[in-house]
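call fold target=FAD-dependent urate hydroxylase
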Amino acid sequence: MHNLNAIVVGAGMGGLTAGIALQQAGYTVELYDRVKQLRPAGAAISLWSNGVKVLNRLGLGKAVADIGGQMDRMAYYSSTGETLTEFSLQPLIQDVGQRPYPMARTDLQALLLNRFGAEHLRLDSTCVGIEQDEHSVTAIFEDGHRATGDVLIAADGTRSRLRSEVLGAPIERNYVGYVNWNGLVDAREDLAPKDSWVTYVGDHKRASIMPIGGDRFYFFFDVPLPKGTASQPDLYREELSQFFKGWASPVQLLIQRLDPQTTNRIEIHDIDPLPRLIRGRVALIGDAAHGTAPDLGQGGCQAMEDALVLTNYLQTTNISVEDALSRYQTARLDRVADIIKRARKRSDVTHGKNPETTKQWYANLKHEDGRDIMSAIAHTILSGPLN
């Protein structure tokens, strides 16, 4: 299918990756986003090897390595600082053929936007509807602008407006049961070794520190809480001090050093696996297609896989756009459903959905030499399209 005109709605990880992949396939791409200024959601992203491989394929390997953190080891500690398990990630890297790169979302977004070309992006454009026939598809925007092309990629995030256009009905997000605070701090050895991802666990909570580029750590805290608890940034430090009272010294130092004004506080939601990802010439990708809890660190990676798989089918099948999208759906539906279910299951184990199960997980960590953890991560990576 030569010289397709693609319309992409949403300039997050999925939309930008799709834009780059489609451009490289020789297609004309128009990219739209409803925001007035592009700001990433969340402080950082743990880009596991399957996501990195997609960016390698798009020629961004060196640039990604430059902004990524050097994560060579992984460790779990009890809330009081006792080592539960610690191991090198080298066997995982050998197994899957690529190291992971945790990185600041701002850095990744800038990298992708730069490669895509900011001049092809229109901001302050809210897509409110779609029309399509057998020849084309049109995105209709709030300001009256209409964009017509051969294919429309809906990458408009977890609160997607276009999802209901594909499904024929709106979908509710599910509260997974915990609140997550996340942000960035300077990397210092009194918090964690600069090459290690460390996580403190206890009382169904987590405090975690991960190295990213620019000599910084990405951190997050998880606390199971009822839905709808109110909070303001000026209270974050006091709240976290209460929730993590008596936890090990690095956790206390982290709470003191974080900047409440640049820390995000999110109630974690997911979306049940969808029955379909396409309708005619419209395809859902990224969080619009599969809102998942972050417990497998696969949200961004799956968006990137979507973008690549979709572009591959548009490039390699010449029956019709609809046929290519149908093949994309077949290739992705089970894969993303599996990630959503496993992330939710993982979240339940970590956050005390069944307290006995969580207690057992803590006990198991003491006997873990890294093999089981790495094997589970490798399974997730190797069941993707670039294995």
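return ok
The longest strand covers residues 174-186. The two ends are 26 Å apart (CA to CA).
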